[in-house]
Amino acid sequence: MVEPTSGQVVEQLRVGLVGGGPWATSIHAPGLTEHPGTRLAAVWTRRPEVARELAEPYAATPCASFAELLDQVDAVAFAVPPRAQAELAVRAARAGKHLILEKPVAADVAGAEELAAAVDEADVVALVVLTLRFGLRTREWLVGLAEAGGWRGASARWLSGALLGEKYGNSAWRQEDGALADIGPHVLDLLDAALGEITEVLAAHRSPDDLWHLMLGHAGGATSTASMSLRLPVRPTVVEFAVYGERGFRALAGRSEPAEAYTALVDDFAAMVASGTRTHPCDIRRGLHLQRLLAQAAHLAAR
């Protein structure tokens, strides 16, 4: 947790929301409105009617252009496909706006590198919405693992039918890029945090129906495996992580409540802006690291 300097008056950040899909409406908009450190000030989407509909309940301004949104805010939260996010977020960073970024942060490594460079040059805060990491149970689990040490391996399973349903079934980028791009960042991030930095994707396989299997090498010689799918008729969704080694076996099952995790993220985001802090376990450097791992996995699976 990042906290403002003692005695510092923390004013509400004016945040602009880019995007009007399910995640924007169910998580970003209410989360930014209900948090004491932020207010939803403006909304922009490529369809003006969607922006108006989303902005109205929150008394936010629907903007006719991205440039108009930038003129009215201190920070921008994105809920758009990776390629669009990377392009727009670079513009926002260069305009001095702090960023809340969805994962993956870009469509490819080059886009992620350009965005990371823009964030560093502009000296703005940029946090990635890795909801698993911001959940209280996950944080406590990771603290326990770090205290115990001696872990030699780990496994992860995230099996869902999300792309078979209506909520995300019409998401073109998710349908095209599949489970690796959508839930892969969550899985890779948590395995990395639990077992040590992932230094190499040792093997990757993608079935015709988008079932992914990965083998990962970690710093210090540990290894892990991951299985992921968004096209399996599994209810409820299976989300399981486990580590094993000298201290036995420790598991973490289930997802963090998205709204609760988002509130924790905004806690850190607002505190970082107020205190001038720029580094965080889930900052843009983390997003770039994960982007490189995604690219390695995709390359191996395509061979």
Automatic annotation (TrEMBL):
Which Gene3D superfamilies does the entry link to? Dihydrodipicolinate Reductase, domain 2 (3.30.360.10), NAD(P)-binding Rossmann-like Domain (3.40.50.720)
Q: Which UniProt keywords apply?
A: Oxidoreductase
Q: List residues of the GFO/IDH/MocA-like oxidoreductase domain.
A: 170-248
| Domain (Gfo/Idh/MocA-like oxidoreductase N-terminal): residue spans on this chain | 13-128
Which GO molecular function terms does the record list?
A: nucleotide binding; oxidoreductase activity
The protein's matches in InterPro entries, at most eight in alphabetical order, are given as: Gfo/Idh/MocA-like_OxRdtase_N (IPR000683), Gfo/Idh/MocA_oxidrdct_glycsds (IPR050463), GFO_IDH_MocA-like_dom (IPR055170), NAD(P)-bd_dom_sf (IPR036291)
Q: Which PANTHER family match?
A: BCDNA.GH03377 (PTHR43818:SF11)
Q: Supply the name of the protein.
A: Predicted dehydrogenase
Q: Which Pfam families match?
A: GFO_IDH_MocA (PF01408), GFO_IDH_MocA_C3 (PF22725)
Could you tell me which SUPFAM superfamilies the record lists for this protein? Glyceraldehyde-3-phosphate dehydrogenase-like, C-terminal domain (SSF55347), NAD(P)-binding Rossmann-fold domains (SSF51735)
